[in-house]
Amino acid sequence: MALQEIQHPDYVGAEVDAGDAEHVTRVLRFFLRDGERVVALATTVKALPTLTHIAVTDRRILGFSAAELAKEGPRQETDIAVVASVETRKSSKQRWFFVVVDESGAETDFGDVHDQDAPRLTRIIEGLVRPSRPEADVPSPRLPEADPLPRAPEPGAPSPHTPGAGYVISNIGAFGERMVKIGMTRRLEPMDRVRELGDASVPFRFDVHALIFSEDAVGLENSLHEEFADRRVNRVNLRREFFYATPAEVREVLERLAGNHLLEYNETPEALEYRAGKTDR
């Protein structure tokens, strides 16, 4: 993601020229809340099929496809008020992916960035996060008081749970029959995330055994990870969510944890590319 300075009151800069950036910003305004202002706009180095732009407003971080913006709006978002950290991670393709982690631990991958541009985008977001939490800088004295009555959440307040989709996927051509990946995504189209995981870094696409839509997707993911904690493939980096287990074993646990939310589960991986390749040998 290359950011270059463009003098405009609504954004910091973008890889596109001023005219194109102004057009994107103008379309984006249709999806902004009252009083919300765009402060940064950037494009990925190599456009992904489903995510080509990142916009930072004074309230949110938005990911969207420029081609589909006017029709569909942002594909994903994270409220500034719930951002816990912003970081970059290097992929196997030597690209840097921009990742936002919220207070519940849920991660949102906003696409690949240039190493030299990531610190600048991080500073922009951190500068917005800090002013939204003045209580973190000045501790208030605790006064004895009676237990307050439960209060209903204010309209627009972030939920204590994170809605999203849990997924169970495997790749027998790459990892064998006794390994699965258990994760979650907050994307409106969960298969976009699965397709990204099956990019050129692995020889075959992933097979999906289950997509479980939940109002507390992070809680469901954590429960599954705890159930299979002794089977983690990587016990040092817990963000590597691979486990030595079969799809059938995960199904047994999911039926207990997800209950009626588990509408469909495919135990047998299709592995079409892998099996087709074997018949040709």
| Percent strand | 15-25%
So what's the overall shape?
globular
Q: Which CATH class of the largest domain is shown? A: Mainly Beta
Low-confidence stretches: 137-159
Strand numbers in spatial order across the main sheet: 3-4-5-6
CATH topology of the largest domain: PH-domain like
* String of helices and strands: EEHEEEHEEEEHEHEHEHEHH
Query: Termini distance?
Result: 41 Å
CATH architecture assignment name of the largest domain: Roll
The CATH superfamily of the largest domain turns out to be Pleckstrin-homology domain (PH domain)/Phosphotyrosine-binding domain (PTB)
Structural class call reads alpha+beta
Count up the helices.
Answer: 8
Helix fraction by DSSP (H/I, runs of at least 4): 10-25%
Question: What is the assembly state of the chains in this entry?
Answer: single chain
Rg from Cα: 21 Å
Characterize the main sheet.
4 strands, antiparallel
Overall pLDDT score:
77
Using DSSP, what is the number of strands? Answer: 13
InterPro entries: Phage_T5_Orf172_DNA-bd (IPR018306)
Protein name: Meiotically Up-regulated Gene 113 (MUG113) protein
Organism: Actinomadura hallensis
Region (Disordered): 129-165
Explain how this protein is built.
- This protein has two domains: 4-133, PH-domain like; 164-279.
- Helix content is 25%, strand content 25%.
- It is built from eight helices and 13 strands.
- It has helices at residues 18-28, 69-72, 118-129, 172-175, 190-197, 217-227, 247-257, 272-279; strands spanning 4-5, 13-14, 38-43, 53-57, 60-64, 76-79, 83-90, 96-102, 107-113, 164-170, 180-185, 207-214, 242-243.
- The strands form four sheets. A four-stranded antiparallel β-sheet has the order 3-4-5-6, with helices on one face.
- Helix 6 crosses helix 7 (247-257).
- 31% of the residues are buried.
- Residues 137-159 have low confidence and may be disordered.
- Residues 150-161 have a biased composition (Pro residues).
- This is Meiotically Up-regulated Gene 113 (MUG113) protein.
